[in-house]
Amino acid sequence: QVQLQESGPGLVKPLQTLSLTCTVSGGSISSGDYFWSWIRQPPGKGLEWIGNIYYRGSIYYNPSLKSRVTISVDTSKNQFSLKVSSVTAADTAVYYCARGEAATGTNWFDPWGQGTLVTVSS
Amino acid sequence: SYKLTQPPSVSVSPGQTASITCSGDKLGDKYASWYQQKPGQSPVLVIYQDTKRPSGIPERFSGSNSGNTATLTISGTQAMDEADYFCQAWDSSTLVVFGGGTKLTVL
Predict the structure, then answer these.
(1) Smallest Cβ distance to A108: which of B30, B48, B100?
(2) Cα three-residue angle A29-B42-A54, rounded to 5 degrees
């Protein structure tokens, strides 16, 4: 079955850019049935959706993060990526990638990667 | 922006029924999904489209959604069900929104 694995630096300095990659195995990222997402969770807190990307290029961002976030896909590597610019301590979180599925008026996320903790600190 | 509200905590005795609510404006006109997250683990989808269970999720997990409230029900709750539970919905303005989460304690 499909598995997702996040990778990237665990420590980022304030005001720099956070960059993460999610590698998809056991299935093709080019499957039109799904989209690919980033979701984060600050330590001890709830889940915050960051954005979705469809392999054909449609991208949707959380309005509250849109100005600082870029999501892209590399179908040749079966990967998708996240960049968050001008990070602050408030961006410290476990970052998850997930596969999304949609139907009329709804979407859901399954499965999720194991998550990677990114700490913003000098 | 659209918001979903969950109680911070719910307690249940083993073998009893646990109900976790998720409230939002006219949530019944939308669809709700539910995720289970155990300590140190990633969230796992347990209910989608209000009532559907993914393969591998026990039948004791069920969902409903009406009015302003979606409910996740766990029948015959087991110790292994102790976890945080998050609801999630799609909204045309906010797109994806999660509830704040509910800690289910089985005692």
Answers:
(1) B48
(2) 25
